[in-house]
Amino acid sequence: MIHHLRAAGVSLIVDARGTKVPTILHWGADVGELAADSLIALAHGLTPAIPPSSIDAPPRLSLLPTVFDGWSGRPGVGVHRPGGTDASNLLALRLIDQQATDTSLVLTTSDERAAVTIVSTIELTPQGVLRVRHTVRNDAEVDRPLAVDALAVVLPVPDRATELLDFTGLWTHERTPQRHRLGQGAWTREHRHGRPGHDDAFLTVTGAPGFDFRSGEVWATHLAWSGDKVIWSERSPLGPVVAGSGELLAPGEVTLEPGETYESPWTVAVYSDAGLDGVSARLHPWIRSWSTITKPRPVVLNTWEAVYFDHDLPTLLTLVEQAKRVGVERFVLDDGWFTGRTDDRRALGDWFVDPERWAGGLSPLIDAVTGAGMDFGLWVEPEMVNPDSELARTHPDWVLGHPDAPTWRFQRVLDLDNPDAFAYLLGRLDALLTEHDIAFLKWDHNRDLLGGSAHRQTTALYRLLDEVRALHPGVDIESCASGGARIDLGILERVERVWTSDTNDPLERQSIQRYTGLVIPPEYLGGHLGAARSHTTWRTSDLAFRLATALFGSAGIEWNLNEASEPELELIATWIAHYKRLRPLLHTGEVVRVDSADPALHAHGVIAQDRSSAIVAQVALAAPLTAIPSPLRVPGLDPERRYRVRPLDLGAPARSIQDVPPVWLTEGSVVLTGRSLAEVGIAMPLLAPEQAQLFTLDAE
Fold this sequence. Notes:
By secondary structure, the protein is α+β, with helices and mostly antiparallel strands. Helices cover 21% and strands 30% of the residues.
């Protein structure tokens, strides 16, 4: 039969008639309620002509495209029998079962001769988010293993989507956008880091030419997986355009014994006719519907850029006092607390409190933190080991990779798939969380895998996180991977926070947060107030710019407050008070980004779900192109309501280069309708480069 799933302005129509592998007839804008005969007519009307020099049947793109169907592009499935024939070239899958609800489909295809069954699961959430994955089973008798080479989700995209956007990056420069026209052939991104990596494609968007944040049709895909992966967009000479994604499997990495299965990661796909913000407007509410976050995101102080490895209890106690004074809610002790850890060249894996540096254990510090009304967090890097460690010397068989391979940050990777290594790590983490009043783990991952099975390592990581969470359900976990190298919807199911990037430079952060937030809601995005001179770029930034940038997300501090002046401490306290007041809006509202013809100017904001209030930032990244920039337009408001617009002073005013500010700013506020603000806008101050001005909007 033909199945039609509908939700939130999205339609998915799947033709599952007969015995062929089902095909997606339409994924995109809602086509309305269609009776069975109308669906048949639609399918009939979409049956294409047969071109010359092709297979003698109307070409079709199935859910599992292979050469059997005449598909000459990248196949969706690849399997073979070790020592035998390439089964993927011989697969003749046939539909043997279909189960449907109003929101999901489960389609089972099989090839009895090849002894292979594949189950395809399709879901359309109430927010209009599409999820698809496949599961392959080896149906052979004894002693006939099946090697899985690929099992990917391939989705059709209309040919009017000719422009492609995805991302790349480096350490401290993550989520750098790149876009180009999609020509004939495939644009393929393969990631072999054992984690998504700083250059992660992250979100692949195929759209109508010129799509931007607020307009244009787009079809976006994201692979919810924290290991190796392959992402591609392909335009076939035969006509179809596809978006594909799946786990990147090394030869022999997944081999199924009879009766065993392999399940692909979920591909998360979003259609929007409202540009990139429309993608976020679907993803963020969906993520919040299953989010592990159950309480407000606390203001964090992390000790890394304050003291690095120089752990000294008296110094840290003064830092606790300063944190309490400005209103910090969570104090996190970073790297350097465990046995022998005096720099990054030794001791990873020896997860015991260092008795020399912490003669009284961690309790004196934890007691001071909790006594000051804050909770305590601790940095760990469970997946890694230094060769110079008792663990590596005692258990060299637990270390992945060739022993002569180069180290990375003087460390190697522990084999989490080794049951003894897994048990050791689970035991140490459980002991730390049981013996100490720890509310938060910053879980780091500071190198690529470069050896071993990325598939087995990733699945074992998920098991380890799941077991730690089961043993200690009240503990928050942050995913950090040398900053933002492991941010995806697979890890997000298991954490309450991600470290967006290792840079706290606000100029870098403006872009990193802007694009990471396309997928990840702001309450997950850790963003910290750093020192005036960035530890990663050596750029010096005004306090006002740093405060405004760190406000939008899960806010924190990464600065030695003992070195801050009295006026600076007062400003930080004011900023934290504003954050706490605005937190319900910042972490539940709809994120909007404003398109600008001037690349030097960014604007973004958060609109309350009931459209009663908003907070917006106008940001000058560099000198503008014109003496008087265009008025700031604010999308997403209720067009019929009137809003009072006021500047928000975080205590440190933004610097402007102007003789006289806009008239309305001299008067303190102005009242305009939501429609006027969206279509016409409001004059802005002439900000100096690397400055940001915040505004609040409240309905009257």
